[in-house]
Amino acid sequence: MKNFLIPIIFILISCSGKNKKEYEKVVKATNTVIQQDISTNQVKDILDKQAYLENEETEDKYTLSKIDLDILSDFISKDLKSKGYKEPSSENFSKKINSIFGLDIKCIQHGKIGTRYLVYHGNLLDGSQNTLEDNLFESFTETGNIFFDQKNKLLTPFVLLKNIVTIKGQNYSTHIPQNITAQNKYLFNDSKPDLAWLKFNDKMFLETLVKDFGYVKDKDLLEWYIKGNGIEKYSNDKETYLKVFYTKNCDNSFNVHSETFSYMDSDPEKYSKEIISVLEDIRTDRIKLENLSFEQKARLIAYLLYFGEKHKEKTGMTFSFMGTFYEHSQENLQKKYDEEFKKQKYYGLPSFEKYWNDAKIEGDGIGLDV
Q1: Which candidate, 158, 155, 133, places its Cα nearest to that of 144?
Q2: Confidence at residue 335, expressed as pLDDT on a 0 to 100 scale
Q3: Which own/partner pairs from 350-354 qualify as long-range (CB within 8 Å, at least 24 positions apart)?
Q4: For every residue of 75-88, which 3-state class applies, written as one string?
């Protein structure tokens, strides 16, 4: 801000018709900006108060609040801008956090702090609103909480001040964790160098974006996730593997990721084998998908079957994905799926209706049912 005001002062002095009073106004404005910075004494005061929390005998003397989050966010904002962060507009920030994180304050997993912050509760703990509020500023490892600051246009976990500030005499310096910087620059500035950094240094965050939030719009991120999270990684947890194909939101809305199937079109032989494996586990009830309704489960299975059927000839497979599925399903489920697929107009998938009607006639190959 000071660098921005210097040329303004110079112009005011140089231009004709500008008098001393106008110059003094600008100087006063400059001083006001400087005074708004957090003083070393203020930082020490907050550090001392937060230090109470580290001792059982004094922890009741201080309660973390929005004040602590405000100063944290302001420090992060200043540091981000010094590293080239371009603060998005309010509209673009809202669009980004909603498209990536699907924030919906009607869901218990999402909350608000005043008008400034939106909160994602990564861990619902015992599921009560009181517990979530009581533990709002506990460590990220316990809560998984992410705070979205609509004033500074950034996201952050909660961090105690001692972890980002160093005091030397009457001065202090900040050292914001690189993962917070990279997360914000990648998500809100589309920074590819920061995505590259995250791939090597914060894999958990990127994996969470895909499998928990269903963020598959970035082809670079999706390719990285799929290549590093093949079915062999989830051989004992194929329900997690399946999350790359769909997202169920807290409001019970359900999305199948067409982007994932489009990417897998590039190597149908490899991915058809993976899809056979998960369908087999669905058939044998090793994958229960209990969190999905019948309609949601039908949609997911339809896309999985369609992928295999579409690429059957390319992969050299001799059986019909849909024929096998239909033949080995219980009679009542055959009817239910038939009705559901028709009702959904075969999900708009080209040739799906033909594949499905042929399946009811063919019905050969290995056993895949639900």
Answers
A1: 158
A2: 87
A3: 351/310, 352/302, 352/306
A4: HHHHHHHHCCCCCC
